[in-house]
Design brief:
The chain is an alpha/beta fold. The chain is built from 13 helices and 9 strands. The protein is rod-shaped. The two termini are about 30 Å apart. About 30% of the residues are buried.
Length: about 375
């Protein structure tokens, strides 16, 4: 009795099988990261000073530069917490910073802060007293209705979005008479502007009404402007605010997509190939004699004498070809002539035994089996 034992791959064989997929995956990921680094600007996404999309702010950044403002776009918290004396800091929407981060920005001493659609946590630290009025104005042309110099020079502006309630002494513009979308607070030598929407300053709407004039006079107040788009710097979440927990940073998402693409390519490449045959230990051993008997019973039950005779003749011819050196493609007449010359059998009897008609009954099938058996005996014992 013989048994088969499965043999696993060795370390060397596994390395040879995996090194090519690993190499291709690494190359794809590396190329994806290089392309990402080469094509990504210092800032990206909505209201980015580097973005030329409709919701980007490249047009505003260029306008400010033409008027002598040095615009520095950044997504790093360290740039927003550096010393800001005599400089302006614009903080874009979105991102997820905790109260400590906002406090660090406040402690940096910026001379002018422009908060675009700020969160309640951001307002509590950087613009105390200003609160979200939980009311959104539809975007439309509005008069400033205030004495803020930047708004008076701009005149009618296409503005809408979040409105705010302001403390006593604050200047409020572009609202419904109660709440406003632009609020300015001047305290301790620092100016803080709260703007309820970034849409008026995007590439798509900057040229409408007096939007460009308002942006230039509101934001371009200092020679140096840091344009900060908050990201996901903090690990903690401050329950005092209404901001949700940090999401996955964009760079991590890009790398994740690159890895997923690489895995997909390798899967499509390797998925077409079948692995090595897995040898398993059989639960039982079936002897050849039992298989033969079982097949014979099936033939008898279905009265398949033609198939049984064909199987007997095929087996006999295979042994005769090998014993007498007869080509397998030889014509029946050549086979019969060769066997008759070497065995002395009658050619008619040989042809009938090897190529005759199927047996008509079980007796004829049994007789054919006996004739072929005698012929095989002469082959085995010449």
């Amino acid at each position: 009795m013989s048994t088969s034992v499965p043999v696993g791959r060795g370390a060397a064989e596994s390395w040879r099988a995996l090194r090519k997929p690993l190499l291709i995956t690494g190359i794809i990921v590396l190329v994806s990261i290089v392309v990402l680094i080469a094509t990504t600007a210092s800032t990206s996404g909505p209201f980015s000073p580097d973005s030329t999309e409709r919701d980007g702010a490249r047009a505003l950044a260029n306008l400010l530069k033409k008027h002598g403002v040095n615009v520095k776009g950044t997504e790093f918290l360290s740039d927003a917490t550096a010393s800001g004396a005599g400089k302006a800091l614009l903080i874009g929407p979105n991102g997820a910073l905790d109260r400590d981060d906002w406090q660090r920005i406040d402690d940096a001493g910026w001379s002018h802060l422009i908060l675009i659609r700020p969160s309640s946590r951001e307002l509590a630290v950087l613009a105390p007293g200003v609160k979200d009025a939980s009311q959104v104005l539809s975007s439309s042309s509005r008069e400033p209705e205030c004495d803020l110099d930047a708004a008076v020079k701009a005149g009618t502006v296409t503005v809408g979005g979040t409105t705010y309630s302001a403390p006593t002494g604050a200047q409020t513009c572009y609202g419904d008479g109660i709440n406003h979308t632009v609020v300015r607070i001047v305290s301790g030598g620092r100016t803080v502007d709260v703007v309820g929407t970034s849409r008026s300053f995007t590439n798509d709407e900057l040229a409408d009404d007096g939007n460009a004039a308002l942006a230039l006079n509101l934001i371009g107040t200092h020679k140096d402007l840091t344009w900060y788009l908050p990201q996901f710097e903090s690990d903690g979440v401050d329950d005092a605010g209404d901001d949700g927990p940090p999401l996955v940073p964009p760079d991590v998402r890009y790398i994740g997509w690159a890895l997923a693409f690489a895995v997909l390519v390798v899967a499509l490449w390797r998925g077409r190939r079948l692995g090595p045959v897995v040898v398993e230990r059989l639960p039982v051993i079936v002897h050849a004699a039992e298989t033969t008997e079982g097949r014979a019973r099936l033939y008898r039950r279905s009265r398949a004498r033609d198939r049984a005779a064909a199987a007997l003749r095929e087996s006999a011819l295979a042994q005769l070809y090998k014993a007498h050196g007869i080509p397998r493609r030889a014509e029946p007449s050549a086979v019969v002539a060769t066997l008759a010359a070497r065995t002395g059998w009658d050619p008619v009897t040989l042809y009938e035994a090897l190529y005759g008609m199927p047996p008509l009954d079980d007796a004829a099938l049994l007789n054919l089996s006996d004739v072929l058996d005698v012929l095989m005996q002469e082959v085995r014992h010449p």
